[in-house]
Design brief:
Length: 123
């Protein structure tokens, strides 16, 4: 199954609903969404809240794309969800997000992609 027109919910959440579009079109749409959003989470239903909470603590409010199980394969070989992208780079699951946070690498990544402003830069 593919996806049809996304349904936008309050905030930046987006739900992709199934319809008979080829998996190639699904992959194209997912890559477009990644390129259009500096921080994006692909998730199954109700599985992104912990990632969203941690990101909001550092001042980042990601786009959340809710996918069906069969659509998860379109984001790559990974079969888990939620999956986080910062810029066009895959970060991974919650454990990898936590590792970035603990190592003080999370905020610089967001500054680099423009999701956060660098308050300490000298102009």
């Amino acid at each position: 199954m593919g996806i049809s027109t996304p349904r936008i919910h309050r905030g930046l959440s987006l739900e992709l609903t199934p319809n008979p579009i080829s998996i190639e079109l699904v992959e194209i749409r997912i890559h477009r969404l990644i390129s259009e959003n500096p921080v994006i989470i692909f998730s199954r239903r109700c599985m992104s809240h912990v990632m969203r909470q941690l990101l909001s603590v550092v001042g980042v409010y990601p786009a959340v794309i809710k996918l069906e199980n069969e659509e998860i394969a379109a984001i790559g070989a990974r079969t888990t969800a939620p999956e986080l992208y910062i810029g066009d780079a895959w970060v991974g699951e919650l454990e990898k997000l936590m590792a970035l946070h603990v190592s003080n690498s999370l905020v610089p990544k967001h500054v680099q992609v423009g999701a956060l402003r660098n308050e300490f830069s000298i102009s």
